Please model this.
Amino acid sequence: MIILREICKRYQVGEEMVYALDHASLRIRQGEFVAIIGPSGSGKSTLMNIVGCLDLADSGSYELDGQSIEEYTEDDLARIRNRKIGFIFQNFNLISKLTAEENVELPLIYQQIPKRERQKRVKQALDQVGLWNRRQHKPSELSGGQQQRVAIARALATRPAIFLADEPTGNLDSKTTGEIMDIFCGLHRQGSTIVLITHDSGVAAQAARRVHILDGKVTEEETS
Amino acid sequence: MIVQTAKMALQAVWGSKMRSFLTMLGIIIGVFALVVLVSLMQGSTDYIAGEISDLGGSYYTVRIEDDHGQPLSLDDLDTIMAEGLGSAAPLGQTYVIGKNGRTSDSFLLYGTTAVYSAIHDLRVEYGTFLRQSNEDNHSRVAVINQNAALDLMGTLDCLGEDILFNGIPFRIIGILAEDDGMASMFSMQDYVAYIPYSTVQRLDPSVSSDLSSFYFSAAPEDTPEQAQDRLEHWLRERFDQDENAYSIADNTAIEETMRSVTGVLQTLLGGIAAISLIVGGIGIMNIMLVSVTERTREIGIRKAIGASRRIILLQFLLEALVLSLLGCALGLALSWITLVVVSLASGISSYTISPGVAVIAIVFSSLIGLIFGLYPANKAAGKPPIEALRYSE
Model:
């Protein structure tokens, strides 16, 4: 459950104040699959940073899973990111020195989950994306689609309140895009909340609900 | 959490072996210099001190400056021993011609008493040293050194035979062990003999029964300080409370002086080596700063998936600590090998790593790792996650 009310984020550009988000409001319910669509520079990334607790809004209120995200310290935000948010990035953002398995395990280590439980969850997550047999591979030894599946497994393993995917298929060809979208649809069917940020209307079409963002303003698309 | 983070730090260090080794090189050389220099210094000091104490255990030379008309006699020395202060022996010396059959040569003749051999740690190889009865009976007996036995008597098996000193026959009752080490360096005379003090007075009238000096060593149960106090107390009483009537010289003074000089040198060398350790620490800091910049993306990813500032700080701090401690371990190993080689080559067994300097090296390396790791680690921990994620390699 995500409730954004009148969120503003401003940047100083020279003399001028630029609104990256201009009184944006958004409500996402538990189990929804929402696509946020907008061209580059529309404020998508800023919205994603605020929803993902990587950044704080200048004004407005943000409630995540019943928790109001305001005036939190850096460490509080880190804890929320760790436990509530499952990030999936356009460029995968796996740690290149670690194997697939270790990458998936990392957020669980930060959660201080005991080793036995960690191993169980890592296996579950990698099984779900079909990469358990590739667990010893480094990211550089995996294809783009496989790397993105490892990244999804990393998010899965923490059992987050929402999956936050920022252009997850932006660097992939159409075939692997289909595979990745299938995984998201599967997660959605299992009841996960998914927020997908994209500029690709084809990808967005697979989401149950579409939200447009332009010049920092959010508009809802009527669902047919 | 610390265990996991330490594992990650080890992985990072192990992951780039060559770079880690080059980073550690400063610490390795610093620790090596510190440990080897200090250990060599300490080993040499111990060796020289050992040689000095081989010259004889610790004993005192007491000189009578002003006898207040009451000269010291052999009876006084007996009193000192009877009161349990320690052992005291006179030493009168004269040069004589020693003769056996046709061979004759110059001899240094020492007149003393039975306890002299204990004071000076003289070792008798064959026979015995002088006895109290020899003194009492003014016996004409002699203990000679090995050179004298071999050259004049022609054999070491000459116990019971007579030797002529200035024409007077003396029975040989003992032969000294061969002098070793530095002790022989100081004895100029080839041929030496010990005879009872009362007997030497007869050979040379200038050797008086009024003693102007004597040797003293402490009773075994006393510490050197206690013994010296008690001896001084006795001497003051003997000479009307006049502290200037006598002087006491201590043969351990040489050793102490040498130890204090080498102690200063050791600190100096250690200090110089410590500077190279600090330079090694700065090397670690530089590489860590480069590493923090290179790994900006990694830091961003870790923060995005939930690493707190504290965890990133801990990770980089542990990496610096692992580098410095690993460097320290390699430096200690290198020092150990070097010292083993040096002691094998020189035959001096006292060249080993002294535990004190090893502990100092470890503590110092840890401190350097922590202090010079803190700045890069703090820099890494302070990176805002969004900017770190955007950083392109």
Q: What stands out?
A: The two ends of chain A are 23 Å apart (CA to CA).
